[in-house]
Write a structure and sequence with these properties.
Oligomer: single chain
Strand order of the largest sheet: 3-2-1-4-5-6-14-15
Shape: globular
CATH superfamily of the largest domain: NAD(P)-binding Rossmann-like Domain
CATH architecture of the largest domain: 3-Layer(aba) Sandwich
Number of domains: 2
Largest sheet: 8 strands, mixed
Number of helices: 13
Amino acid sequence: MDIGIPKEIKPQEYRVAATPGAVHALVDAGHDVAVERGAGIGSGFADDDYLAAGAQVVDSAAEAWSRRLVLKVKEPIASEFGYLRDDLMLFTYLHLAAARPLTEALLASGTTAIAYETVQLDSGSLPLLTPMSEVAGRMATQVGAHYLGKFLGGRGLLLGGVPGVAAGEVVILGGGVVGTNAAKIAMGLGARVTLLDINHARLQYLDDVFGGRIQTLASNLANIRATVERADLLIGGVLIPGARAPHLVTRDMLASMKPGSVIVDVAVDQGGCIETIRPTTHDAPTFVVDGVVHYGVANMPGAVPNTSTRALSNQTLPYALALAAGGTAALQADPALLRGLNTHAGDLTYAAVGQAFDLPTRDPLEALASRPQMA
């Protein structure tokens, strides 16, 4: 199959969909790969690296997008909507539940769109979201500690404290991959850490893993209110696969927070679990509401692209190989990949997105049967 890898154009997005090693694997499997010139530079991969891997380096985004299977990192933005078409299979992060214009563009174009973040194993794990959640979780604590600096509008607090001075308090909403990784870094810095989750079994697991060195609490309104009031750094790591994140921290709760405290909402690309969050960019990452610094960068791992691209490409490659070999038949053959299908031939095939926008959805297998397979 012809595969295209365009350059990411979202502001301050330096990742690329595949490393030269991954491209070599695709070429070795008999596929033609076109990489847009300069696509890998931000991640530390030169055009010559892709040429050596057997790819063709093309001069325009249009050439890369013209291929049957397009691999990306971030969702298409408005200037890329014109590349969408009914014979295109797009494999990337989509986060449609927080992006109605993109949802409508995919449906109108008839594009077959498979979302990294909704590819889901029978165990419930999300193999293509996990690596970026690991990166974002670890970054969340680092970023939050940085913005606690007074010169950046924070409280002027050293998160780990020093002998004779109390450490700062980190409150983490969600005990999944993001929350666990955020807790690791916060604990390593010497902060006091409280983590909330609705799953008691998960709290038991984390209490064992961390040896009781973090405080685990059931996530309910009373506990959220009490811990938010104490937080120097509040990290949002709530995830409902493919769906819009619930607002666990409401605007009125901000009044109880300390002036100069910091919020980092990793869930912002799914709408955020903090009511006052909105997407920001690495160019202008923060804003202040009621004296609280908000960090809402929706592509946090893009700041560390060499690590992020390698981690992502490691996980996406087997699925990309399957799609390139089988087209839409690969979706029918693999239940995990089928769960990643969000749109096909004008049908919305992911229920959580339909619920977010009150749009009708269709069973993905029925949708695939409605038109000839892409091969």
